[in-house]
Amino acid sequence: MEKQQLPNSTLILVFGILSIVTCCCYGVIGLILGIIAFVLAKKATALYLENPELYKGYQNVKTGKILAIIGIILSVLSLAYYIWIIAYFGIEGLQDQQMIEERMREMMGQ
């Protein structure tokens, strides 16, 4: 019997890569893609472990899962950074360049 490709193995890899690439888009897009890739990888792993002799492409699933975890972590850090920036400067403060420069000088101790 010929081995068949694991369902969504390539999609998991692509979403894992895209979660890292898009983690700087305010953290939201990378977080969504990372979570989707992680959930799909969990389902594909369970399917593979039931009958490993029937499927190929498990390496893509493992790699995609690792990339998804990295993308989720980077996206959460990015999202936390943007939330901190908005909390510190305020939304209207982000539009005032002079106020941002003053706050940055305060932070640097000048």
Give the structure's gist in a few sentences:
The chain is mainly α and 110 residues long. The protein is built from five helices and two strands; from the N terminus they run βααβααα.
Give an overview in words.
The protein is mainly alpha-helical. It has one domain. The chain is built from five helices and two strands. It has helices spanning 9-21, 28-50, 58-89, 91-94, 97-108; strands at residues 4-5, 55-56. A two-stranded parallel ribbon has the order 1-2. The longest helix is centred in the last third of the chain and has 32 residues, at 58-89. The chain is rod-shaped, with a radius of gyration of 20 Å. The model has no long low-confidence stretch (mean pLDDT 90).
How many domains, as an integer? Answer: 1
Average of the residue pLDDT scores? 90
Q: Tell me the strand percentage band.
A: under 5%
Radius of gyration: 20 Å
Number of strands: 2
Task: Report the biggest beta sheet as strand number plus sense, adding barrel if it closes.
Answer: 2 strands, parallel
Gap from first CA to last CA: 72 Å
Trace the largest sheet across and list its strands.
1-2
SSE string: EHHEHHH
Question: What is the number of helical segments per DSSP (H or I, 4+ residues)?
Answer: 5
| CA-based shape | rod-shaped
Helix content bin: over 70%
Outline the low-pLDDT stretches.
none
Give the class from helix and strand content and strand pairing.
mainly alpha
